[in-house]
Each structure stands twice: as structure tokens, then as C-alpha cells.
Amino acid sequence: MFDYIKGTLVEMTDISAVIDINGIGYDIICANPFDFERHVGDVVKIYTHFHVREDAHILYGFKTREEKTLFRKVLNVSGIGPKGALSIVGQGEVDIFVQAIEEENEKYLTSFPGVGKKTARQMILDLKGKLPFIVTEKIQLAEEVESNDPSALAEAKEALKSLGYKDREIKAIEPQLKQAKEQTTDALIRKGLMLLMQ
């Protein structure tokens, strides 16, 4: 029904953005509200999915069309509802998720909250070969994360906090930091700053 909504971002909460269009406020539950937090007062464009159920009509919002498309695909998987699909889109990256599906990487898929082995297998069964995205390069996935230096990640997170970023902002990008190819503290700080400024 709504492809996207473009208007003035007037308010942010932990889970949603409020967009004003001609005096009407649209409450949009976002995959990652922190993508929009620094744009309060600005005109923004949010791609939307309108979800209808018996007790509520809900708008879900995404920064890119690719995130919206992935949400809809994941939502069609048996056993995954809007909350689970939104969590996957908000905490992951489209390319990395697609690669994990194509490579049947259950370990990466089960890193998302609420996704066990059974659900991961169902996602692979339902989505493999059916996602309309192309992975242009191989990305380091979850199997290799354990070899990374956890102290470097902790130090990078503390450095980002000292620069004024909130815990919830840093937590939102933590999965991407764990998957970074370089795991020195300096490299993780640079990666974190790049993600936080997107």
C-alpha cells in the first residue's frame, strides 16, 4: 500500500520514527531507528511495509529498498513473524545475510535472537536461490569470528562511547564489527565510525 513515506522526522523512540506530513504524524517501526536518529528535524525518506493483522495496522520502515525487500522475504518464512524479520534486517547486512543463506551457514543465522537451528534450516530451505540480490564479494562469516580478539572489540566499543555514541547505537552495529576482516582496535574504531555515520 505504501512504498515509502517522505516527510519531516519530528520524533524518535527506541523502536520507531514519527514522520509529519501535512500535520499528520506517521508512527513507523524501524528496523534500525539509529539510522535516522541524527536526522530529527530533517526531511527523510523511509521505505515502508504496511502490515495488517486483526488487532493492528502497523507500518514498518527501512533505510533502503533492499532492506525492505529482505524483510518481506524473511517474513514469508514459516515460523518467523514481523518482530523476528525486523530483528534480522536491523542487526544484519543484506549481502552478508544472502551469502549465509546461499552457503547454508547455520552458525551465522542462529546468531540472530530467537533463531534456532530449526528456524535457520527453514530459512535456508525457503530462501536459498530466491533472494533477488547479488553478493559481489565473499565476506567473512560467523565461523571465523571466534578467532578474533575479543579485547580489541571491547576496546573499540569503549572508544566509541568516549566519542559520545550511546550504548544502544554501538550495540546496533556490533554484529558488523564482529564480522570485520581486520580485528585490531584501530581498525574496529574506524569501521564503527563509518557505520555510525551512515
From TrEMBL:
Keyword list (alphabetical) reads: ATP-binding, Cytoplasm, DNA damage, DNA recombination, DNA repair, DNA-binding, Helicase, Hydrolase, Nucleotide-binding
Query: Ranges for the Helix-hairpin-helix DNA-binding motif class domain?
Result: 72-91, 107-126
Query: Per the record, GO CC terms?
Result: cytoplasm; Holliday junction helicase complex; Holliday junction resolvase complex
What family does the entry list? Belongs to the RuvA family.
Q: What is known of its domains?
A: Has three domains with a flexible linker between the domains II and III and assumes an 'L' shape. Domain III is highly mobile and contacts RuvB.
Function statement: The RuvA-RuvB-RuvC complex processes Holliday junction (HJ) DNA during genetic recombination and DNA repair, while the RuvA-RuvB complex plays an important role in the rescue of blocked DNA replication forks via replication fork reversal (RFR). RuvA specifically binds to HJ cruciform DNA, conferring on it an open structure. The RuvB hexamer acts as an ATP-dependent pump, pulling dsDNA into and through the RuvAB complex. HJ branch migration allows RuvC to scan DNA until it finds its consensus sequence, where it cleaves and resolves the cruciform DNA.
Supply the name of the protein. Holliday junction branch migration complex subunit RuvA
Organism annotation: Halolactibacillus alkaliphilus
